[in-house]
Structure formats: structure tokens, C-alpha cells
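Aim 2, interim progress. The first record below pairs a target sequence with its C-alpha cells.
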Amino acid sequence: MKTPLHYQISEYDCGPTAMMNAMSFLFTREQLLPEIVQHIMLYSLDAYNAKGETGRSGTSRMAMMFLSNWLTQFGKACQFPVACKYLSQDAVYLGGDSELTQTLRCHGAVIVRLNYGGDHYVLLTEQEGEQVSMFDPYFRKRPFIQEDIALIDSEPFKRNRIVTIDRLNAKQKDGLYALGPKKGREAILLFNQNTRLTEEKTIEYFI
């Protein structure tokens, strides 16, 4: 059974929440192993703020990179069908031949670090044309005034936002939901190897 994606419970835990949501999106509750949940929580919330307080700056890039590598190695060692790839800088964009777009077309999921009043992790689950389905773990009730961001409250297993590719690809650091300057971009591609579309199947699917 799939479970609804969930929201962060503090101002700091968008990283582990986005990672847990990726697992919930890709796998059923019965498939997930306790070691995955344990390690996501163990290695996240590691970033220190200016006062030296741990966790108060959320989850670091190094922690997310480590988690993506750990999940892939865990999958190989334990015959669990998860695979991840960490991307940064120029490789992180949507549209055309981007790896993020190809991942979404192959039934994978993408975690990106973008701007939402500061650095913030969200989950991307689908792309249809110029529209990208997103689950933002930061709970919000008010609709957005921006015409290219839609608030969705009826699809808890897949998305709670629809955002355009142009907004996501924006290079300005303070743009809402913008990936920002290329040198600071970060993404994690995640797959359930049992449901992942191969290149041949993807070509056939889009013909």
C-alpha cells in the first residue's frame, strides 16, 4: 500500500522529509525496509547555524550526497531495488535532454534544492510539457498570487504544487521556487528499479 506524502514538522526538516517522501512515492509501505528510514534520519539535520547549533540550518549538501550514495550501495548489497544519482551545478535543470526530465519520464523522482524563503528541499514527481508536479513539504493553505504556481490539495500521493519549468530554471537566487545560480544547484535522482522505464520503453511510450 502506498502512503500519502507528508509535511515537515519543524522549520528545519525539509531534507529528511523530502527524502522520506521520495521513498513513499517510489515504494509501498510494505516494501520499505527499516534501515532506510533509520539512515535517512541518522544522517540528516546535520548543518550548524552561525551560533554553532546543530540542525538549525537543516540538512547539508554533503549529507544529501552521502544519503544518495548510501541508498545506492544499500540497494546493491541488500538486493533492494533503489538507485540514486547526485547532480550539481550545470547538470541541474529541467527540459530538453536534462537528466531531471528524463528521470521523471522514466517514473523516477527528483529531489532538488531551491529557494523558498531560503534554501529548501522539495520532491518533483512528474513532468507534463512545461508543467512540473511538485510535493513541497512546507505546509501552506493560501493560494499563490503567481500565475505559474498552482496549489493542489487533492492528490496527496503525488503532488501539492504545479510549477512551470521556466520558474524552476530561473537563475536568480531569490526567485520563488527557483533553482538559482548554477554553481549552487543540487539534485538527487531516485529510482525504483522495478518500475523504472528503460530507454527502449521510454521511446515507445512517447511515440
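The second target in this work package is listed in the same format:
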Amino acid sequence: MLVAAAVCPHPPLLVPQIAGAAAPELDDLRAACAAVVGALLDARADVLAVVGGADAAASFPGDAAGTLRPWGPGVRIGPGDPVLPLSLTIGRWLLERAHASSGDDLPALRFEAVGFDAPPAECAALGRRLAGSAGRVALLVMGDGSARRTEKAPGYIHPGAVPYDEMIACALASGDAGRLLGLDPGEARELWAAGRAALQVLGGAAQAAPPPAATELLYDDAPYGVGYFAARWAW
């Protein structure tokens, strides 16, 4: 049964050691992510599944680690082998940061990579499986919006980028699982929206539960021309 979910982005610059002197630029985003991840831990789930996009689907054990060496200093996160893709590595970093801040024990962890190009039905099916995997399940969904919001964005500017991200923000603010499941993979590819598949996993998980009792969108901005969101849903 799904009891809580949080959505965060996964830029390497979220980690201060990687951002260096530019770290203060994302302080508001870090604070929002800390708040939604903290709420996730407060849900006292039996299992907390971290879901994020990757080149290929894969499942990883709770002790799996990741490294940010390709983006700067050799920052390693987690006790096990550094096998996690970027999205799940940042998810693990957010969880360990929240754990260090609160001192509360982490629930049993699992890490699920979903292919960036996975069909919506496959994403939704994964969400339903995760939601039914334990008595109390929490999801940390790592998903960026479009990387074509401004001239400085990695994919340069696209006129459809802002409306696309506004649609995602509205769905996250209102708890609209159906709108997430309706995201089009082709449009996501054109807009460089790396979080589409992971967000549809959330949509599938939430569709298997009653509507969330509380939803909150704490962050919706594009500081580097990439849409970043921080949101929480609770049942």
C-alpha cells in the first residue's frame, strides 16, 4: 500500500561538493528537497523505493552505491558497489542527507531504474508492483522536467518546454496521477524531459491507491534552463 511519495530532480549540482562556489544558487531547491524527503521518512514506511530514469531498466539492492566522479570530485554515496545511475545516486544522497539530519532510521531501501524510453504502460506496471510490494510503501521519484527552457539550457530553447513543465507542475500540485500517465514519450524526447518515465511510475503507483489526502508542490523553477520540481503526496 502506498503511503507517501516525493518527487525531486537529479542534477549533480544539487550536491555542494560538485557545485563548488555555485552551491548557494541551489540552496532553495536543496531546502525543498530536504522537506519532501523528510516528510517521506516521517511516513514510517516498511519499504522506501527510489525510482529514477536510466539508459536501461534495472533493480538494485538497498546497499547499492553511486559515484559522481564523472561530474567532479570523487563523491561516492552508499556502502555497496557504485552501480547506481545518476538519478538514483542523487536519490541516495538526498536520503542519506535527511537521515543524517534527523537521526531516524531509514526503512528498507530498494532502487529501481526505469528506461528513459520505457513505454507508459511499462512505467505504470512498475509503479503498481512497487505500490503492492509491502504493507506500507513510500516512493522517492527522481525526475527532471524539460532541459530546453531557456537559451542557456542544455538543449537550447523550445517553445513547448514551459507549457510542458507547467502541466507537470499542475499534476504534482494536485495529485493528478492520470495527467502524469498521459505524458507522451515522443514529446518528452523532443523536450529533453528526462523525468517522464519516472513520473509515470509514480502515476501507476498512485492510480492503484485512493487519491492522496495531501499534496504540496514546494519548488517549480528552472535555474539552469532545466525544469526542477520538489513535491510530496501523502495518503
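The radius of gyration is 16 Å. This observation will shape the mutagenesis plan for the next reporting period.
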